[in-house]
Design goal:
BirA Bifunctional Protein, domain 2, binds magnesium ion, 15 helices, binds adenosine-5'-triphosphate, alpha+beta, 8-stranded mixed β-sheet, 5-stranded mixed β-sheet, Rossmann fold
Length: about 425
């Protein structure tokens, strides 16, 4: 038997309503914030991620699905959502249409990781990117979108924020951080030893336990912010207070991608184990320039849909199945009639089905129950003769007599 690749998952037909429910909510919130959907390709030139995500990050060093296509071009399956959207923003000259450009996406993300609960090799992200707004209000707006989604789903993960400054303040901070990490070098993992001088900030985000312990004692970036970055961070906090969004400042949050500047944030759900970050994002003022565009400030986030589902489960939030079939037409020797009746109900916009596998009446009733049909209508010769059927309400175990001609009307309400 051929099985699915490690770290991937089937979304089974009986589970898909959960995704549809969440996706409906995501679209609703995106609409309220006037974000438009963008879809970019599943794969891009590898170069985009080397420059965009950063070539000393775990994602680029260890996790990308990269291969040469048949013409020898290096291709990479999206390891995150932002770089592709940023490329599209530049390539399509979107700034001409007026800034800010605000968009959302839902995409597969591919990372060669060690699979475990909440950590897959193909997962899905809902993401938001906003280009062209520099002020702290935009950072708060991005955070507020994520918060509105959690509210809409009745979930309550905690928000942690930090600022990692700009190129200038980070230069000074790097010196202090390297000094500290040098003194702890023996305890670091092999990768971190290597990137100590190239990209010390990455060490604060390493998943290795020893590195995490060492990271806890590191000097805080917040003590090294330049005046402008400090004012910006104060502005973000003010804006969040103004919106009544609760947060905790956590200086160890640095995020796993190189493109962030200033604000970074994570929503963490305590209930879903070690892999508890449901949503992560921040400001990335240097990315657009980094991939060859005219400088443009930007802010956004990515939210893991699988982890959103885990959070919903952990918090005991029930996802209602709004997609259950409306009616099942059971045939008692009236197959041709049932086929036509079902067709006419569907034309009237009612989800309807009838027996396709030659079951007897009792088995048809059982099946209707199994698929969760709200109503069952049994059609035999008597019903055809009288033109009246009894509509069985499966939820309330009640039934009502209805004229066949009125059936569609009856079921619509
Ligand atoms: P982590 O620290 O858990 O590795 P990350 O910082 O790599 O997460 P991001 O790159 O910010 O995550 O991705 C945004 C969101 O996508 C995460 O907050 C998480 O909800 C989800 N996510 C990331 N990697 C995975 C994965 N391998 N499997 C499932 N969901 C994931
Ligand atoms: Mg990761």
């Amino acid at each position: 038997m051929i099985t699915l690749p490690k770290g991937t998952k089937d979304l089974l037909p009986q589970e898909s309503y959960k995704w549809h429910y969440i996706e409906k909510k995501l679209r609703k919130i995106a609409g309220l914030y006037q974000l438009n959907e963008i879809r970019t390709p599943t794969f891009e030139h590898t170069e985009l991620f080397l420059r965009g995500v950063g070539d000393t990050t775990d994602i680029v060093n260890k996790e990308m699905y990269t291969f040469d296509d048949r013409s020898g071009r290096s291709i990479t399956l999206k390891p995150e959502g932002t770089a592709g959207v940023a490329r599209s923003f530049v390539e399509n000259n979107m700034r001409e249409g007026g800034l800010p450009v605000k968009c959302w996406y839902e995409t597969s993300v591919f990372r060669y990781e060690k699979p475990q609960a909440g950590r897959l090799r193909e997962h899905h992200q809902f993401g938001v990117e906003m280009f062209g707004a520099e002020g702290p209000c935009a950072d708060a707006e991005a955070i507020s979108i994520a918060k509105s989604i959690f509210d809409e789903l009745g979930l309550n993960p905690r928000l942690y924020i930090n600022s990692i400054g700009c190129r200038n303040c980070r230069k000074v901070y790097h010196g202090a951080l390297i000094g500290y990490l040098e003194s702890q070098k023996e305890g670091l993992c092999a990768t971190c030893k290597e990137r100590l001088h190239v990209n010390p900030l990455r060490i604060l985000d390493c998943k290795n336990e020893n590195c995490q312990r060492i990271a806890k004692g590191a000097p805080s970036i917040l003590d090294y912010l330049c005046e402008d970055c400090n004012a910006h961070f104060e502005g973000v906090k003010h804006s969040l207070d103004n919106l009544g969004i609760a947060y905790t400042v956590n200086p160890t949050i640095v995020r796993g991608l190189d493109y962030y500047t200033r604000t970074v944030f994570e929503f963490i759900s305590e209930g879903i184990g070690a892999k508890s970050t449901v949503c992560g994002g921040g400001r990335y003022n240097d990315l657009i320039e980094g991939i060859g565009g005219k400088p443009c400030p930007a802010v956004g986030f990515g939210m893991g849909i699988e982890r959103l589902l885990l959070t919903a489960e952990a918090e005991g939030s029930i996802i209602p199945n709004e997609e259950l079939p409306t009616v099942y037409i059971a045939s008692m020797g009236t197959d041709d009639y049932c086929q036509r009746l079902t067709a006419s109900l569907r034309k009237a916009g009612i989800s309807a089905s009838f027996d396709l596998v030659g079951r007897g009446l009792k088995a048809q009733m059982k099946f209707a129950d199994k698929i969760g049909a709200k109503y069952v209508v049994v059609i035999g010769d008597n019903e055809l003769a009288s033109g009246i059927v009894s509509v069985k309400n499966m939820r309330e175990s009640s039934q009502e007599e209805v004229r066949i001609d009125d059936l569609a009307h009856y079921l619509v309400k």
